[in-house]
Amino acid sequence: MFVINFVYTDKLIIRGNETELNWKVTGCHKITIANKTILPGNIKKLNIKLEKKINYLNINFYGIGGQKQTKKITIESTSPSVLSTFSFKTNLSDLSSVPLIRKNLKKTLDDSFNYQVPKKIKINKPKIVSRKLTINFESLIKTNHPINQ
């Protein structure tokens, strides 16, 4: 039995999310993780949910004839902290109790709609004026246009 490669992420993982473990092994008939989970030897990857800040994992690969290889890994996870909480409540119990708030809001809305209405623009039809054009042709005289020979 031979573990060819064993890969896991070294990126930041948020606690409660999953990470993926990948491996390639030959001659393996059983895999155990933390002596709790037993997998068949032909499994090539596993997703593990990280619940702790530091996750220690012992992965044992068992081959025919009592061969055993162990991979010990440590995966660290983090929990984002919130600097300040957001309160969706306001100190004013009823905004309509504020004097003139509704009138000012209505006036503001009415004024804003005035800017959105397009104004009509009068466009005059263009005048097309015909002009008397003359074309003068000049007869071709070869001596006036010498050709380099």
UniProtKB/TrEMBL annotation:
Please indicate which superkingdom the organism of origin belongs to: Bacteria
Name this protein carries in UniProt: Uncharacterized protein
Question: What is the species of this protein?
Answer: Mesoflavibacter profundi
